[in-house]
Amino acid sequence: MSEPRSFRVEAIVLRHSDWGEADRILTLYTRERGKLRAIAKGARKIRSRKAGHLEPFTRVTLQLAKGRDLLIVTQADTLEAYLPIREELSRTGYAAYAAELLDRFTYEEESEHQPVYRLLVDVLGRIAAEPDPWLALRYYEVRLLDLLGFRPHLFECANCGEKILPVDQFFSPVAGGVLCPKCGTGLPGAWSVSVQALKVFRHLQRSSYAEARRAHPSPAVQAELEALIQRYLTYLLERQLNSPEFIKAINKPAG
Predict the structure, then answer these.
(1) pLDDT per residue over 81-104, tens digit each?
(2) What is the CATH number of the domain that holds 27?
(3) Inter-residue contact 247 to 94 (CB < 8 Å)
(4) How remote is the C-alpha of 249 from its chain's centroid?
(5) For the whole prediction, is pTM greater than 0.85?
(6) 59 lies in which domain range?
(7) How far does CA 20 lie from the centroid of its chain?
(8) pLDDT tens, residue by residue, 189-200
(9) pLDDT band with cut points at 50, 70 and 90 for residue 255
(10) DSSP 142-169
(11) First-residue to last-residue Cα distance in the chain
(12) Tally of CA atoms within 13 A in the half-sphere of 65 that contains its CB
């Protein structure tokens, strides 16, 4: 039995780009079919009824029709606009980071992955609602690594298998996790990690979000853990992301 020429999905708009004189190409992460690309014809026209529903970081329901090369958006309705994200530049940056990270880790035409979709919906809601989304973003990174098969070893040495003791350790992206001092000392490509940062990292990995919110790391530990996770993500993706530099630029103190 052939697939229908038109179907409905729930999606988050990850990004869009202009195409031709009036169209937009959308990159979507859908609940039902994973990542898709689609074209919204006439979306850049002033009177377009679709345009307001197709902005990045919007949760929408879409009717998609199969075209010659791309899916075509024939109907769009907003489920959640996450307005605070659009009203504050720093929140826009955080949402852009969450979307870019998922975009870089996934491919088009993969099968549906509802837990990943739910994770994206959750983090956008937290970015929109929470005074400081730092913990929400770190939780999102750790959970995304889990769901996509890149969960780092944090409780035993990734080389010798010995239990990690409460002392400063090392982290090796090549080994896929923490190394004990015996295995990590002097090893090229291994990064030092403090007891405090590793404690928060492990807490995020094994906790629900409600439990994770009990962590209150110091600014120094926050900076260390964020840098560690960023380096690990860069290693996995084999490239740097664009949005972290944008976030740094807009959060840089004036003067």
Answers:
(1) 999 999 999 999 999 999 999 999
(2) 2.40.50.140
(3) yes
(4) 19
(5) yes
(6) 6-81
(7) 29
(8) 999 999 999 999
(9) low
(10) HHHHHHTT-PPB-SB-TTT-PBPPSS-E
(11) 65
(12) 9
